UniProtKB/TrEMBL annotation:
Domain Maltokinase N-terminal cap: 4-90
Descriptive protein name: Maltokinase
EC nos: 2.7.1.175
Pfam families: Mak_N_cap (PF18085)
Length: 479
């Protein structure tokens, strides 16, 4: 099992010393194949522990079709000598899991051992479909059942309500068009803690969905490919970069504006259905303290990897300090917490938001606290900058492109889409000066975080948030 964990994409303990100290069986779904749900406790040398969910499919004989998911041939205490596979890779096992959900009536619960299935929406699950495991860099495992439903199996689990389930449940009940409807979820109330642990959720499969990040990249690529032609449409006429963006097939601004409206509508429902807190001047000043603290930690931790971050620190402190001088109060509320274009999906008539778990690095208790909605808005603004800059980098790698021209066009795309998103978000309400000061601080704070993320995960991309810092602190070109 330890060897399988070490290979698993979703296991967060890779590269750290760790050992499995407990494996607790929550339930056995009889099958065939028998499907068990185990909760594995992983302990680190500093004494900290993490819980991971491992659903297993057990067969008396080896199954060649899923060799890649073999956890091990072994003698299971309850099942005897078996070959055990990670169940999300196995269609037979996923059919067993789906049938357990389908056997639960809407607005009701059912139980198998320590596993409790909950259903909310009036939707007849299609149990005749085949399951397909999503590939890609996911922190959890998502399995589509035909084009009917999507099961998300949470891997790192925590006692208490999972925010993704909680938010999908409230938004589904409120009839929000901006999430995939939640059909049900599974939890365990036995075992590792006094509080139940949420283990999985099943929701509407968004058949026509296109990833917002991919769509934005396609827009920037089209712009940069067409821009030369558009820039000189007729002899003697020369368009500036804003006009080129406007006239190009890469104009994404209408979508950005609709996305801004969708995020505002989601915020409104979240404000109405979760606790809110009124933040006064002292609370707002505490935001600046938090941002300063994150900056100091990043400057210290990244001293060797990104020494230039320290050069931006004084100007960044000024951006954060401006928040301390605001005479505002604002309503803190439940937010998405980790919003970027990769968490948005475009379906035929709408934008949908996914993955409401918040910033995975933060403890659960912190992730569900009321926060400023500007955090989500800032995350999206950063994402438009990322989309423009990442395509600009790809084009700059090609022969013969003028770097300054590319940069200016990418800036124009980012600026146009950031403005469109903000316009959609704010609707008819004009942003006040205080809103802009707060938003700038959240954006700078996010860029500081991104420098650490990129330095550790994609060192070649660290220039993207670094360049943003220069612009946000006024020491570089403004986007
Ligand atoms: N209801 C859905 N229908 C279709 N695809 C979805 C749905 N929800 C999420 N996805 C896709 O699955 C991917 C992973 O989902 P996400 O909730 O972000 O999982 P993780 O927490 O593992 O990152 C998303 O990027 C999105 O493309
Ligand atoms: O996807 P996660 O929620 O785990 O978030 C982490 O990875 C993101 C990258 O996948 C990273 O986002 C950064 O890069 C995006 C482009 O790949 C860009 O759209 C975002 O604006 C930028 O922050 C995120 O920061 C990190 O926490």
């Amino acid at each position: 099992m330890t060897a399988y964990l070490d290979r698993a994409r979703w296991f967060g303990g890779k590269g750290r010393d760790h050992r499995v100290t407990d494996v607790r069986r929550v339930a056995t779904l009889p099958g065939p194949p028998a499907v068990t749900i185990d909760i594995v406790t992983v302990r680190y040398p500093d004494g900290s522990e993490e819980l991971y969910q491992l659903p297993l499919a057990h067969y008396p004989e080896p199954q060649e079709r899923i060799t890649h998911a073999l956890v091990g041939p072994h003698t299971d205490d309850a099942l005897g000598s078996v070959h055990s596979y990670d169940a999300v890779h196995d269609r037979e096992a996923m059919a067993v899991y789906l049938r357990a959900f389908a056997a639960t009536a809407p607005e009701d619960t059912s139980r198998v051992g320590g596993l409790v299935f909950h259903r909310i929406a009036e939707h007849e699950l299609d149990t005749e479909t085949h399951s397909t495991l999503f590939s890609g860099e996911q922190s959890n495992s998502s399995v589509a059942f035909g084009d009917d439903s999507l099961l998300k199996v949470f891997r790192k689990v925590t006692p208490g309500s999972n925010p993704d389930i909680e938010v999908h449940r409230e938004l589904t009940r409120a009839g929000s068009p901006h999430v995939a409807a939640l059909y049900g979820w599974a939890e365990t109330d036995e075992g590792t803690s006094a509080e139940p642990i949420d283990l999985a959720m099943i929701q509407q499969f968004l058949r026509t969905a296109s990833d917002g990040w991919d769509l934005a990249l396609a827009g920037v690529r089209t712009l940069l490919a067409e821009a030369d032609e558009l820039a000189e449409p007729r002899p003697g006429e020369r368009l500036d970069d804003d006009e080129v963006v406007l006239r190009s097939g890469g104009d994404f601004a209408g979508e950005s504006e609709r996305l801004g409206t969708a995020v505002a509508e989601v915020h409104e429902v979240l404000r109405d259905h979760f606790p809110t807190t009124r933040w006064g001047a002292a609370d707002v000043a505490a935001i600046a303290d938090g941002m300063d603290a994150r900056l100091e930690a990043q400057v210290r931790d990244l001293a060797a990897l990104v020494p230039t971050l320290a050069l931006h620190a004084p100007a960044l402190r000024d951006v954060f300090d401006a928040v301390r001088h605001l005479d505002v109060s604002l309503t803190a509320q439940r937010v998405h917490g980790d919003l970027h274009l990769g968490q948005t999906l475009r379906v035929v008539h709408n934008w949908k938001l996914v993955d409401f778990e918040g910033e995975p690095a933060k403890p659960l208790a912190e992730r569900v606290l009321p926060d400023s909605p500007w955090r989500d808005v800032a995350g999206m603004l950063r994402s438009f900058d990322y989309a423009a800059r990442s395509v600009e980098r790809d084009f700059a790698d090609g022969a013969g492109e003028d770097a300054a021209v590319l940069s200016s066009r990418a800036s124009a795309w980012a600026e146009r889409n950031r403005a469109a998103f903000l316009a959609g978000y704010a609707g008819s309400t004009a942003l006040t000066d205080s809103d802009r000061v707060l938003l700038a601080a959240y954006e700078a704070d996010k860029a500081v975080y991104e420098i650490g993320y990129e330095a550790r995960n994609r060192p070649g991309w660290v220039d993207i948030p670094l360049a943003a810092l220069a612009r946000l602190t006024g020491s570089g070109e403004d986007t």
